[in-house]
Every structure is written in structure tokens, then in C-alpha cells.
Design brief:
about 80 residues; mainly alpha; Cytochrome Bc1 Complex, Chain D, domain 2; about 80% helix; about 0% strand; globular
Length: about 80
């Protein structure tokens, strides 16, 4: 099973990668840009595997670049909040 098959697995995977990036001294700005690049890639190259991913894809595709950056930052914040629980 791929990490993108299940939204909870996807969030856990993102949280782990976020922790690794922060541990390696990657700046929040760089993390934000990477999250944007990943969101853009997923929206164009990967089929949604579940309802949550489809909603995110629809939101991403309806948004302009500034709004897409906001969505990416919210996803980063979501996985940070999940990790701190």
C-alpha cells in the first residue's frame, strides 16, 4: 500500500519528512516552497486516491498561485499540529 492510498498515512509521511527537514536545518521558507512544489506536482500528476485528496485537488485547481501557497502552508501546519498531539 502506498502512503498516498490513505490520508492518515499521507499526513504521517508528511510529518516525518517535515521533522527530518527541520532537523537538518532547512528553513521554514524552503519547507513552504517545497510543500507548494509537491502540491503542484500532486495536482497534475497523481490521481486522487480518496475523498480528502480529491477535495484538496479541487481546491488547489480552483486557487490562484497565492492561494495555492496558502494551501501548502496549511498542509504543513496540519502535519505540524498532528505531530504535536
Amino acid at each position: 500500500m502506498s502512503v498516498i492510498d490513505n490520508f492518515e498515512s499521507w499526513k504521517d509521511f508528511l510529518g516525518d519528512r517535515l521533522n527530518e527537514a527541520q532537523s537538518n536545518g532547512i528553513s521554514n521558507q524552503a519547507i513552504s516552497e517545497l510543500a507548494y512544489d509537491i502540491g503542484d506536482y500532486l495536482s497534475t500528476e497523481i490521481q486522487a486516491k480518496n475523498d480528502q485528496e480529491q477535495i484538496l485537488r479541487d481546491l488547489w485547481n480552483a486557487a490562484d498561485a497565492k492561494e495555492q501557497h496558502a494551501i501548502a502552508n496549511i498542509m504543513v501546519k496540519l502535519v505540524q499540529n498532528e505531530a504535536s498531539k
